[in-house]
Design brief:
566 residues; alpha/beta; Rossmann fold; 6-stranded parallel β-sheet; 41% helix; 16% strand
Amino acid sequence: MKVRGGMLLARAFQEKGVTQVFTLSGGFCNPALEGFMECGIPVVNAPHEQVAGHLADGYTRITRRPAVCLVGPEGFANAVPAMMEAWGERSPVIFVTGSSTLKRQGSGGFKEIDDVSIAAPLTKYSVSITDGERISEFVDRAWKIALSGYPGAVHLSLPVDIMFSSYDADAMRNERPWDRGAGRVARAWPCPRDLETVLELVRAARKPVIIGGHGVWWAGAEEQLEASARRLNIPVFNVPYHQKLLSEASDVYMGLADVHQYHPSRRVLQECDLVLMVGARLDNQMNFGNPPLFPAGTRLVCINGSPEEIEHNRAADLNLLSDPGAFFDALAELEPLSPDWLETNREWRAAWVDEMLADIPALADDRIHPLALALDVQAAMRDDDWLVIDGGNTHFWSEIAVNIAGHRGLRLGNVLHPGTFSMLGVGVAFAAAACIDDSSRRLVVISGDGAFLSGGSSIEAAFQENLPIVVVIDNNGGLDCISQQQERLFENGRHFATDFRDIPFHGMFEGLGGHGELVERRADLVPAIERALASGKTACVNVRTVGHISPIVLATTSKRDKASIE
């Protein structure tokens, strides 16, 4: 029996257990789409390839299973920003390009681009499939590379002549491996001697802290993180921009390891005697491991699950190659430390919450502060609701509000946000992906107006799939994060090329068949969000806010006129 190459591709992904494909349907991809249809794998047709990529990235982050983003050759160029966002978060998305013909490669074929070379710096593996009989082999390689060690996106280019050509349905099935299912991901187990060295440091510590990164999430070890920290009375912090690991209401979670978005972390890092960074990188957000963020006298230990992560963390005083879950299990075997340090951290967090609330300026009711907006959004939410954040200042103020609401007891189901590159426009796509994964979830997006304009076409995917997500627009009339820097950087104190007209975002949703409301007074905000949630429709609450510079933008502004944010 003969089948097209696209069918072999779809069957190979079916073997791996792929449950979702995202695309902008193109003629180059039709055989693969036919294959997905016959294999019963759902395909979401997005309005733009970048949206398809963000949907696949969001779905992969949430489920911790690779999703597929399928695009044509010119569409691949549109998907590159989403590929970069996935690369920054080490999200193992599988990007597939239906590319120009192989047999005339380099001759200027129809829509011919060097997609393999373009994708190479943004993926762990980028390759062109040169033999249709080996399609299953290439999928198997890509899958294992995407998930092994430090996870990350991969890219397969399938030329159109191979996509459409016919092959034996059991092509290359006479070779190992006979089982090409998903399998188990290999984990790094710690060397007992190296592990004991780290554990001795923990036993001797009086004021240790744990800073968790996205490696903990991809290892599925967040419950072990919380259990070991609770047993040993160690405060836990999250690296900025990465997947949330613990509920903000957890009794061991303090906030972001960010001296601007969570002020007490400065004092914590100055006074602690041991930092355990698990599944994270000593990059610009962590000042590359250097003072003043990490004092020279503080022991800095990095625990990572792959050798390449260890290489990134060469600045650490000590590195341990270990799966995060294995490390936390060993940590939980130690005797509890004194609870005094953890209690001190809780007191500092409580004082910070009071300080932040007291600092919200007293504005007229028709002038809504962005922190008040983020707090009121969460006041309308329930435990287990999901919150998605998107934007510049909107993101920063919302992160602060999430910690405050968590301290007050709100236990959100999850918090999603842009990653390392702060890519604007991911919010709606991430919310849609979460709703596709579980339609019973209540999802609210807080998006800046600039962020929504960057990725607003993704809202059509939500309407098309009938997803009842609520988008709250922090509408301050421009790229506020940038204009506030301009006001402090430019000699005339003005901002330039950052303003928007008064955009009726709520009317856009109403015109598409959804629910829309305009809010201009703070007193009307919570009832409007509650109505949007109750509508059961894709909904927008367009909130007119007053721009107010966030602590992190204020802190970095003085550096921008010298050299860089670093």
